[in-house]
Fold:
Amino acid sequence: MITVEGTVQRSGMGAGTWAIVSRDGTTYEIYKDAPKDLLQPELQVRVKGQVREDVMTIAMIGPVLEVKSFERLEP
Structure:
């Protein structure tokens, strides 16, 4: 389990996918079935989840992060 703080972004790769760009610049692709409240462009969040090394995606924009929980942060 890891904790990531960053900004939610929508990527135009493939059919489109959601990602979190962490404060250190790492892009994590959000794994399917993420909470709908999380999927808002430019939302500042702290996410707890698991990097899924057993999953490949079409977009391949970074490690795939399966979100277990999240909280909004003040911008």
